[in-house]
Structures are given as C-alpha cells and as structure tokens.
Amino acid sequence: VADEGKKEDKMDVESGSTLMKGAGEDKSAKEDVWKTSLIPMDMPSMNPVFLKAFIRAFQKDNCAEKVFNMAMKIARYLAEVKSNRDELLKEIGQTTMDTTREIDSDLKNCIASMPSSKKALDIPMMKFGGSLYKLSGRQARLLRLLSFLDSMGVLKESSKSKEEKGSKLEIASTDIDRIVPSLDILWNTLDRYLLKLVPPKSTESKTAPQRGGGTNNNNKKGTKRALDGTKMVSPLKRQDSRLKAKSPKSPKLGRTRSSRRLRRTSSVGTELKASSSSSKGEAQDAAKAGVDLEEDDSDVSQLLQLLPLIESYFIVKAPKSVGDIEREEFRDFCEFTHTHSRILNIFCQKKPSLMQRTLKSLLWHPKKILNFNNKHTHFLHEIQKQRAATGNIGSFRIMVRRKRLFEDSYHQLKQLSDDELKSPLSVKFHGEAGVDAGGLTREWFLLLSRAIFDPNYCLFVAAANNNNVFQPSKSSHWNPEHLLFFKFVGRFVGKAIYDGQLLDAYFTRSFYKHMLGVKPTISDVESIDPDYYKSLRWMLENPIENVLDLEFTREGEEFGVKRVTELKENGKNIKVTDENKVEYVSLMAERMLTDDIRKQIDAFLEGFREMIDTRLLSIFNEQELELLICGLPDIDYNDLKANTEYKGFNPSSEVISWFWQIVEDMTQEEKALLVQFVTGTSKVPIQGFKQLQGMNGIQRFQIHKGQGEDRLPTAHTCFNQLDLPSYTSLKSMRKNLLLAIREGSEGFSFR
Fold first, then answer.
1. Contact criterion met (CB below 8 Å) for 629 and 496
2. Nearest-angstrom CA–CA distance, 260 and 292
3. Quick one: which of 275, 295, 374, 439 could link to 201 by a disulfide (CB 3.0–4.6 Å)?
4. Are 594 and 515 in contact (CB under 8 A)?
C-alpha cells in the first residue's frame, strides 16, 4: 500500500473526493483507471487492526488535504475486497454517526444559549466554531467522512429500501443504514440554527407587482417573498452591490413582473439587507436574536466557519445533475437552500470555487437563488476555462472604414473560424493613425452595435413602445443576404459577451428569451403590438361567444399584400370559443414572437452559439442577460426628477417627496431597475429623460396616483407610467417600491 501510495504525484489526484476538491462528484469514470493501474488482481484481505489504524486518517480533525487525498485512494483500493470494504464501512460508519451526534449536540447548545442581543453572535460562535478549533475540526472530519461514503455509493444505497439494495452492499446494517436518518436530524438542527443566526426578514405583499395597466380583480394577499442578497463588486460598473434573489412564489395577478435584484453596500461582502420568508415558526422569534450582517465583517467571517458543515449537507442532499433537481426527492433541498440563500451567496462570494464543486447545484436551482454577481463570476470562470482549452492561437486584426463599418466587419469576420474569432481582436480604422491598445476595439464594438440597427439593412425594427429597443424584422427577407447578416450579428454579440465588451444594443424581452432558449410568453406581445396585446388580454378576461367571430387564423399585411395563415391544422374551420380562447391567444403570441421571424432567429442563434455555449447563459434570466450585454446605465437622479410628470399628485405632495427621497438613496443598480420597471428597458436616451420615448413618441416619466394604501406599485411600460399608491409612511413606500422593482421584472402574466 505504501509503495502504491508513492505514485501520488504521478496519478490523478482528483480521483477521490477531498475536503476541498471533488467532494460529491461522480467518480465512476475514474474508477477504471484505479482498477487498471493500482489494484493487483490478487489483493488479500487486511487485518482489521491495520484497517482501524488506517482509518484514523479520516478521524483526525486536522488531516491535511494531501494526506486525505492519498487516504481516499488507498481506502478505495482496499475496498475492492469485500471483507476490507465491510470493515472500512463499519468503522467509518460508526465514526460518522458519532461525529454527527457531537455536532448536532453542539448546535442545539448554541441554539439554547443564543442571547437576545444582535451583537452576541460571538458567544455561540465561540462555542461552535471554535473556541474555535475543536468544532471546526469536527465539521471538517464529517466532510471527509461523507466524501468517502459518497464516493463508495453508501449514502445513495442507504437511502434505498431493502428490496432496492443490491448485493454490492451486503454488510451488517448496524450504522450504515442509520447514517442518513441521523444526518437528517443534524440538517434540521442546522436549519434551526441558521434561522436564529441569520433570520430571514418577512415581507408580505397585498398584491403582486403589476405591469401594463390591466385590471386586477384579485385582492388576495400575495405570498411572502425572500429577497436574499450580498454585497459584491459589480463586474459591469465595478461598484459595491448586492443582488436580491427571487421570491419563492410569484402570484399571477394581472401582469406581474418579478425583478433583477441589485443592491449596493458600503463595504464589500459585509452587508446583507434583505427580506425573505420562512414557514418555520422560529423565524420571527429569532429576528430579535439574529445577526445583523450590515454592521461588522467579523460576522461574515464567523459564518464562514460553518462552510464545512454546509458542504457536508450538499454532499448528502444535493442533486448530481441539472435534470435531477426538479424531482420530488430534492424538494427539501430546494426549500432549505432557498431559505438560506443569503448565507449561501456569501459563501459563493467569498469562495467562488464552491460553484464549481460542492455548491454547483445552486446554479441549477429552479428559484435562481444565486445573485447576479456570483453567477457572473462563475460565467467568467467558465469562459476562462474555454480560453485555456483553446490554447494560444494568437490574435487577429481587422481594418475597417468608418463609412462602411458594417460591410467591412462582416466580410472580414465571416472568414474566421470559431476558434480564431475567440482570440484577441485588434482594430484599425482606415486612414487613421491610431494604435489600438484597447480603446479602438471598444469603439468598434460600440459603433457596430449601433450600425446593426441601421434601417438600410432591414434587419431589425424598433419595438412599438420604445424606439431604443429592437426586434428582428419579419420583412428582412427583402435583403437577399439577411440570413447571413443575422448570423454575423449573432457572432458579433457572442464575441462581445465572450470578450466582456459592452454594446449599445437593446433587444426586446422575447428576443433575449430566444437567446436563452426560453419560450416567450403572451405578455411579450405588448412590445411588438400594444393595441393587439390589449385585444388579446380583453379576450382572456371577458366572454367572447356571440361577441367575436374568429377562427384559428391570422390575417397579416406586408408591403400592401394581405395574407391569411392558419394557426393550427384546419384552423380556418375551427371557431374560437371561451373554451379554446387560451389556446388561440397562445398560438397567436407564438406566431407573432417566434414563427414570423423563425429564420432570422435561427440564423442569429447559429452565429451566437458558435461563440457562447447557451448552457453557460442558462443561469441568467433575460433581464440579467441585458445587463451582461449592455452594462449598467448611469441614471442621473436630477435629470429624472426634472423630467417627471404627475397626475393625482403634485411635486410638493408628501408621497412624492418620500418617493424622491427613496430614489435619491438608491444605488445605480436600483435606479436602473426602477427605470426598467417603468419603461421596459434600462437604456436612457442620449439627450436625457426629456427625450424618453413611449408608444406615442416622446413620453416623459410619469407618476400617477394609484389605488389603495398597501398595494404594490404598478407600471405601464407603453406610457412610461408608474402608478404609486398613497402610502401612509416612508418605510411602507420604501418596502413596497423596492419589492416591486426587484420582484416585478420577469415578464407578465394573465389571470
């Protein structure tokens, strides 16, 4: 064993789960390497005394990572013999049980001794994290033990019924079968401890945030929402920020739009100011004794003492693949991670490598609990890995004429392979002496991002409600090279994302969804045809029989030529009724948003996917994708205030004074969210808010008096209109306004 162990430096050190690398990963692909390179065919049984001595490597609190790597390899090597395997599992199983009980007991003591003072975190953490050494060592020990058991398939097997277990695990069922139940007790205790340590702040909304001006007849209370965030350095503006996570539920009342969650704090990584909810009865009582993470970076540092225990939880409970997380057996995992998303975002911020290892399942979480900065950090890491895999293939240079920027760029880039296009770019403008040290390349990206919308190319059309937002034109076929141009534009946008360059190119929400591989919704019709969207909405909200005479067809006109197309087979003979009107509206929306421009979308995505793997983008939503492409705008508070119109209020109204006080205190990220919530895009006109566009031309930012005193604000993006209720306090307005702009940016829906 010792001789084989000397091959450590020559072997793949990642073949076993370790304290920091590879924990919980599937090792099946590397087991064959072990069997062929290390394991003698006649490996004998070992004396139990020697096995017990060997197992001490797993039991030590201060086991070095390299020692653990070697111990893992040797243990798996020995376990090929059944008698060795049985003895190993028996001893390690018992040690795991003992360690689990010790940690559970200490956590319960911490809960019982939690004082009421917010700053008294130091007392229980000194007991738990060490006087700090002792219990931190127990956590690390548990992580090593579970890593080994997971690599042996024991945890998976022990969770099965006796009938499901195969002969591979024919050992005494003493402790192995009790490991998972005992761990479940520990996880419940950990859940209670985290709730007391960093309690979620409950926020209950009366009505869901709405967009678009539809009537909402459902006045039931909305669900509680969890807004989890941490303070990060923005990758786009290099500012301290935090990104709030999605709510657990988003009630579909009228047109709802949840939001991107961006916040800034004064000290990187230390401030957490969020509201969330929990069904657990302890949450509210714990609020008095919980930790305020806004005040002291030491609080965050002490939270990191829990990381080995959190990693242990993920080894046992987390799904191993993207497709598994939606299964019923991982429901508890999703609820636990959502409840404690604030803490998990801190861990990922402080140790980004966790998103490639034990905490990688957070990237697949159905509730998208990771904040934007953490997701962006992971995205950059994956792009860097691709660059490293491509190798050094040099750089390429293009020379373009300013007056023929689109054509010159198109003809030169189309000759490059995918790998060549991923290499560094240098730009020279014809007839100019400038040397590109980065500035000319940035200028090229900016100018070309504007040129692609030139109406002379007939590629894109402005959205009906905003001249700064664009959608592929269904009439682009009049340009004989339109599909080649769309592929070029796709490669160009992908190149910008790959290189981290920002573009002045804002697209409709439905087009962003196509980039992400997400199907557009009915509400996305509004940006294409607001009047027709209102008609579709009216159909869904009112009886139509004996009122409308429609079939499953669509009438259209292009350059004066009228066409009638069927929405489904034999659609011209199928009447639209109250029973099938939802299907009719859905098919009509799909036709307008997808089918009419299917060729253009496919050509764009062909080029786009040559540069960017859409699986990497799947962690973002469409609002975050816009930030990734366009960056964060600079919102001028004074300009916005000076170009705002009021109805039902006046500039001196108390409610308006509160509103502008809140806006002035907002970070640039939150101001961008507010502008996007009200206007549909975060883009600000070059001339400022006095040139803000609406569906009827210039339409300034408007604040109208809304109904109620405890409802969330609503917005009408076609008219740049915010309906603001008459709140009774500044605190109430702040809570509801921030909730609306964060939780109200994910599309719309009908009730």
1. yes
2. 24
3. 275
4. no
pLDDT > 90 fraction of the chain, expressed in percent and rounded: 28
Q: What is the largest CA-CA distance in the chain?
A: 91
* Least confident piece of the model among 167-181, 212-226, 348-362, 588-602: 212-226
User: Lowest mean pLDDT: which of 37-51, 160-174, 593-607?
Assistant: 160-174
Q: Catalytic residue, from 110, 348, 630, 718: name it.
A: 718
Q: What stretches of 612-721 show up as alpha helix (H) in DSSP?
A: 614-617, 622-630, 637-642, 654-665, 668-679
Element (H, E) at 445: helix 439-451
Cβ(737)–Cβ(225) below 8 Å: no
Distance, in Å, from the CA atom of 401 to the CA atom of 379, rounded to the nearest integer, reads: 34
CA 380, CA 447: separation in Å to the nearest integer? 25
Q: Of the ranges 108-112, 153-157, 404-408, which one carries the lowest mean pLDDT score?
A: 153-157
The H-or-E segment that residue 716 falls in is: strand 714-716
Cα distance between residue 394 and residue 487, in whole Å: 24
**What is the DSSP track for 54-97?**
HHHHHH-TT--HHHHHHHHHHHHHHTTSHHHHHHHHHHHHHHHH
Active-site residue, 718 included:
yes
Phi and psi torsions of 227, nearest 5°: -110, 100
What pLDDT score was predicted for residue 597? 93
Is the pTM of the predicted complex or chain greater than 0.85? no
Dump strand ranges (E) for 450-521: 460-463, 466-472
**pLDDT band at residue 586 under the 50/70/90 scheme:** very high
Q: Which residues pair with 565 in a beta bridge?
A: 554
Distances (CA, A) of 525 to 42, 257, 383, 585, 693: 70, 15, 34, 10, 18
User: What are the pLDDT digits (tens) for 64-80?
Assistant: 777 777 877 887 777 78
Encoded tokens for 125: 């953490």
Q: What is the sign, positive or negative, of the torsion defined by CA atoms of 620, 621, 624, 630?
A: positive
**CB-based contacts of 126, cutoff 8 Å, min separation 6:** 132
